Amino acid sequence: MLPSDREERERILFAAVSAGYDLPDFPQYYVPYADRSAEVIARAKPLEELKKKRVEAPPKLAALEREFPEGTRDLGFLRVRARKKDLTAIIDRKSGEVLKVLSIDPWV
Questions:
Q1: Where in the chain are the domains?
Q2: What is the pLDDT tens value at each position of the chain, 108 positions in all?
Q3: Were 100 and a residue from 41, 75, 81, 90 both cysteine, which residue would form a disulfide, CB within 3.0 to 4.6 Å?
Q4: Where are the beta strands (DSSP E) in the chain?
């Protein structure tokens, strides 16, 4: 969660520019995942969007369908930024639980 204080936001910005630190390097601003699960659910995109736009997605999503035989209708995805490679988090759109992280470029 971003700090509400303007001076603190500027301190973090300057830390990013001058020393390479960014918000993830300031754990005092972490919040429990459960506190944000409604936001996660609201932002999750349908798996079909990923399947249509990424050639590497259909086989990986087919494996996901085998892993979750009850169906993938209630699953969605979120983009995960990482240092070396961005990933795709598979989300249960009812609970917000992260079920799996796949090596699929999520920027569709």
A1: 1-30, 36-108
A2: 778 899 988 988 888 898 888 888 889 889 999 999 999 999 999 999 998 888 888 899 888 888 887 778 899 999 998 878 999 999 999 999 999 999 998 986
A3: 90
A4: 45-46, 75-80, 87-92, 98-102
